[in-house]
Write a structure and sequence with these properties.
Elements (H helix, E strand, L loop, with lengths): L1 H30 L2 H21 L1
Helix pairs in contact: 1-2
Keywords: Signal
Length: 55
C-alpha cells in the first residue's frame, strides 16, 4: 500500500514532468546522446509500469 501512495506522488510528478521528458528526448536527439535518451526512457517506463500495477 505504501508503494502505491508513493506512486501516486510519483504520478503527479510524472504528469508535471511530461514536458520535461519530452524536452529530454528532444535534447537527446539533437545532441545524439544515446545515454540521455535511454535515461529518459527508463524514467518514463518505470513510472508508467508502477502506475499500471497500482491502478
Amino acid at each position: 500500500m505504501m508503494m502505491c501512495t508513493q506512486l501516486a506522488l510519483w504520478s503527479v510528478l510524472w504528469l508535471n514532468s511530461v514536458h520535461v521528458i519530452i524536452k529530454c528526448y528532444e535534447l537527446g536527439s539533437e545532441s545524439k546522446n544515446g545515454a540521455l535518451i535511454s535515461s529518459c526512457k527508463v524514467v518514463d517506463v518505470v513510472i508508467k509500469v508502477g502506475l499500471t500495477i497500482c491502478l
